[in-house]
Amino acid sequence: MIQQVTRGIKISVKTSFQGTFLKNYKIHFAFGYHITIENQSNDSVQLNSRFWKIKDALSKDEIVKGEGVIGKKPVLKPGESHTYSSGCLLTSPFGAMSGHYSMINFTSTRKFRVAIPSFKLSAPFALN
């Protein structure tokens, strides 16, 4: 598990390989990730948007931006956490993801970014 804390917000990431399948006559590698966002600060915060950079060993980097996470903009009081699962497809058995969440602190009304630690995606059969 990969973890990182930014401004009192702890991000924990666990990845899994989901399998391979054909899409448009090309093999693709499916990866899942499970993320927990924990508010270790003294203020209530809300996650408003996400930014991902997905690196694929055999393809161009992909940028993904959007509101919330899986259709939600969770509000986290001090000590609360939000967990969700998602995934991505790569054209190679190796890749990586990193990014950030844009959040707002309800006490100060200031927006801030929370780093999502870089994590590797690798199919177990492709490792030496």
From TrEMBL:
<dbReference type="InterPro" id="IPR007474">
    <property type="entry name" value="ApaG_domain"/>
</dbReference>
<protein>
    <submittedName>
        <fullName>ApaG protein</fullName>
    </submittedName>
</protein>
<feature type="domain" description="ApaG">
    <location>
        <begin position="3"/>
        <end position="128"/>
    </location>
</feature>
<dbReference type="InterPro" id="IPR036767">
    <property type="entry name" value="ApaG_sf"/>
</dbReference>
<dbReference type="InterPro" id="IPR050718">
    <property type="entry name" value="ApaG-like"/>
</dbReference>
<dbReference type="Pfam" id="PF04379">
    <property type="entry name" value="DUF525"/>
</dbReference>
